Amino acid sequence: MNTKMPRREFLKAAPVAAFALSQAVRADAPLPAASAAALKIEPFNYRGVILRASPWQKQYQSARDFYLGVSNDDILHGYRAAAGLPAPGKTLGGWCETNSNTVFGQWLSGLSRMACAGDDQALREKVAYLFTEWSKTVKPDGNCGMGHYPYEKLICGLVDMQWYGGYAGTGEMMEKVTDYAIKNLRRDRVPAAPRPWALHSGTPGEWYTVGENLYRAWQLTGNVKYKDFAKVWHYTPYWNKFADTAAPGDAWGVHAYSHLNSFSSAAMAYAVSGDASCLRILKNAYDFLQSTQCYATGGIGPAERIMPANGNLGKALDYHQNTCETPCCSWASFKMARYLTQFTGEARYGDWVERLLYNGVGGILPIKDNGRHFYYADYRVSGGVKVYARGTYTCCSGTYCQAVADYPNQIYYKDDSSLYISLYLPSEVTWERRDGAVKVVQETRYPREETSAFTVDTKPGAVFALKFRVPGWSDNMSVKINGAAAAVDCQAGTWAVAQRTWNPGDKVEVRIPLRLRFQAVDRWHPQRVAVVRGPVVMVQEGNAHEPVFKLPDSDEDLNKWLVADDIPGWFRMAPPDGQNVIAKFLPFHEAIESLAYRMYFDNDKLPFILW
Hints:
The chain is α+β, with helices and mostly antiparallel strands and 611 residues long.
């Protein structure tokens, strides 16, 4: 995916000469002191990590190619027309019928991150052109025609253009539009409420997500106006529900994605201030989401709502096809988990990322054609299906770009003495250290198979630790070094630490047993279960002409009755009475468009016989 061009040639080819690559702004630049003190470990910030061949690298490449191919004139049409400028092309349509506000900032962000990760000159040029031409449509006073939602996404994109794209020219525009926003954005800031419907995202809509990227703008520039403006949007009424508990009784009924996303603003408030109460809120909110809101896939938000902790999460599977707003929720979850991993250094937060990589955004239909994309995942007990959204270029086409761009940034973390492996995904990483670079290549067919192999390339006698995330669900994970069993403690939910003196060509093999197990949807529905293998949710084909088969009652019997099929990663039923069951189990991420499937089973009510 590398489309490299020498720097001198790029500067000649760049759409605007002023968009020189900045040597001062780097993705690995140190954060301001308050932020650096908040970090225990760091991701690689889209540098030094390369995805290798896998279904998720293929998805990443497909997304990159799609967004690169969207007409610049179409993206810019509404802006140019409104400004009275020549406007070739046409609007994108769908949610972007008037202009591209819904997605514009997120596309600048996602494509800048992809450009950084892949050293991708074509993406850099596209982002530069879009920004330069859009800038011509902004009024002299900084009015860019954006309310709270698109303005916050715009700031994200402008920050990322500098931090990850290396563009030096966005700072003046970011200050200009922010000065206008400070004077003109509504500040009624009504918190969200379950009723009436119009308040599910608060008033004005999603105002509480604005702070995150303003804090990032302060980190980048040091201009205090961004930090001060970020404080205006603190969501204190909702965040304080989690100040002292992970089980608040009144946090439900509100918009799922935007409230999940609001915790990224709490995370950045902690990053810039070091206020321990913000970190406590973030940790409690995470535990609340995991214990009361998450399906087996990691997805949340049936009918786009946070559920009360009373069994409604499970009940929703009877009624709602719109089980999870997948691209949006995956993106917000990725961010929340990454912030917590950085701030705490704990391995456990990578489990949510892993589940959503395989069953969330990594398991949906790809964006294609004229902005047709996936929106809702369907987990209903009566059976689900993957379909494209009716509308085009919705919010999910913005978060899809960012979430897929995040794949290489979720695999590895680092500190001064350790390299952390959080995801088992074919890839390679180059870790720049004071005493010499270390390159690690990861080869794996996980989660189809149980092992991941790592080859270390370093100078002889290098001393450091490789730390491997032990999934919270796992039992008996083991580590081999150069073919011999290593005395490495592999406690679930922690890092397994291989500390030693390394030499070029050293090899490490991690084995994570992938047993099948039942996972109940919530504690009120212990028999409403999904079948899970490792981090992967399995679904049963739903179009077989046979009764809905009853699964066994225990995990032990489940592993006896489900037998490996000829298709790797698939299973067929082989009950002890010899009954022939046609419908097979397959990973949810392998279910194709319009394939009927069953994810959840009421095991205490089956089999259900129709004839």
